TrEMBL record:
It catalyses: D-gluconate + ATP = 6-phospho-D-gluconate + ADP + H(+). InterPro entries: P-loop_NTPase, Therm_gnt_kin. This is Gluconokinase. One of its GO terms (cellular component) is cytoplasm. One of its GO terms (biological process) is D-gluconate metabolic process.
Amino acid sequence: MNNPSHRILVMGVSGSGKSHVGQQLAAVLGATFIDGDDHHSPANVAKMASGIPLDDDDRHDWLATLSGLFAAYKANKESVVIACSGLKKRYRDRLREGDPALRVLYLEGSHALLRERLESRAGHFFKGDSMLASQLADLEPPASDEAVIVSVTLPPSAIVERFIATLALTQRRSLG
C-alpha cells in the first residue's frame, strides 16, 4: 500500500517552536520542511527587524507564495511541512487554497512562556515584546475541528507524536 502524502501547516505565534517542531515532524514523515519565514520579502524582514509588526497587506504576497508551495506539493503527490504563523482564519483559508485537505498543527502557549523563549533566541529577525503582543492580538486561534491543538509546554518530540497519532487516526477513519 502506498503511503499517503500530506501537506501540513505548523502554526503559532513567534516563539512557539514552529520551525523546530516542523523539522522534526518532516523528518518523521519523510517530508520536505519549509520555513515560511524564508519566503518573506526583504521589505517584510526589514520591517520586522525594526520591531514593526506586519499588516495584512505585508502578508498578502507571502501567503500567496506559501499557498502555491502547498499546491505544487499536492500536484506532485509529495509531503511537505510548512512552518508559518497562520495567525488569522482568513490566512489559513488562503493557505488551504493550495490544498483543501491541508492539515494544521497549532502550537499554543502563554504570553509569558513565548516571551521567555524569544528572549533566549539569537540570530532571528523577530524582535521585541511589542511584536509578540501584536501577534497575540491578531491571533484567531483555530478551533479543534480546524487543527490539532497542542501545548508548547510539551517537548517537541511529544508534540510530533501526538500529531502523528491524530493523523493516523484520521487516516483510519477515512479508510473505514
